[in-house]
Design brief:
Elements (H helix, E strand, L loop, with lengths): L15 H41 L20 H16 L3 H15 L2 H19 L7 E6 L6 E9 L2 H7 L6 E7 L7 E7 L4 E2 L4 H9 L16 H20 L6
Antiparallel strand pairs: 1-2, 1-5, 2-3, 3-4
Helix pairs in contact: 1-2
């Protein structure tokens, strides 16, 4: 008992049954963390394949569709046909005749007011995403947003061009366009123009920054990064190990 007369609280001890339940709970969570991403990935792939098959298979002639001959549907056949068709279209449009035909079709679309706007915007987005050129996001960074003292992860794009660059030009320095993604959906966000000196460039890649945004900060890349093991470093380590073994062999057994 304490000096005030109140009973002294006894230390909390886990019983054998409680310890077993706690251990089983940890095992369950560990298994869930390992298995859930695998099943989620397989489910997303299955939904994507089924969605493409639902669009492409009705367009395939019956004599070329294996579902017409087999007692069960063949998953992924529509996706395979779509990949082959897109590759063939790209091959055909790579020559002069194909480019001429594409330019003719684009001129027709340019005469349609609403369709022209949709086509130009979607084409520019796809060209920017899949071009792999300097138009893609270059690095990840931090900016103070939405107020001083709060920092947000952004994807850094190339320097501002055109009218934006002319309007914001000044002695302060270069102005960069950055994309501020939202959590947990990084495909939506805000386009901001920020001075280069106000951006803290990060060492993490765009993929690592996207994982950080999607996970709401739960998945963070290691820092500092481990040094890459190059062939020269590997050879130097092997040489040092060989020299150490030589010194050990020459040292008398009783020597300190």
């Amino acid at each position: 008992m304490t000096s005030t007369g109140a009973p002294t609280p006894e230390p909390v001890r886990l019983t054998r049954r409680g310890a077993l339940a706690h251990r089983l709970r940890n095992y369950f969570l560990t298994g869930l963390v390992l298995v859930a991403p695998v099943f989620l990935t397989l489910w997303i792939v299955w939904v994507l394949v089924s969605w493409v098959d639902g669009w492409i298979k009705p367009l395939i002639p019956r004599q070329y569709n294996p579902d017409a001959y087999l007692p069960f549907p063949v998953p992924g056949f529509g996706l395979l046909v779509a990949l082959v068709a897109l590759t063939l279209i790209g091959f055909l449009t790579a020559n002069l005749a194909g480019r001429t035909l594409v330019n003719f079709g684009e001129r027709i679309l340019d005469r349609m007011p609403l369709i022209r706007t949709i086509y130009r915007g979607s084409k520019q987005i796809f060209e920017t995403v899949f071009s792999g050129s300097a138009k893609s996001f270059q690095q990840a960074g931090l900016i103070e947003y939405p107020r001083h003292g709060l920092w947000s992860v952004v994807f850094i794009a190339p320097s501002a061009r055109g009218e934006i660059a002319a309007r914001l030009a000044g002695p302060e320095g270069e102005v960069l366009s950055v994309f501020l993604p939202t959590t947990p959906n990084p495909t939506s966000g805000y386009l901001l123009y920020v001075k280069a000196e106000d951006i803290i460039v990060l060492d993490m890649t765009i993929e690592e920054a996207a994982k950080l945004v999607i996970s709401a900060g739960l998945v963070s890349p290691d820092y500092p990064r481990p040094a890459p093991v190059t062939s020269a470093r590997r050879a130097r380590s092997a040489k040092d190990a060989g020299q150490k073994r030589t010194v050990d062999s020459l040292t008398p057994p009783g020597a300190a």
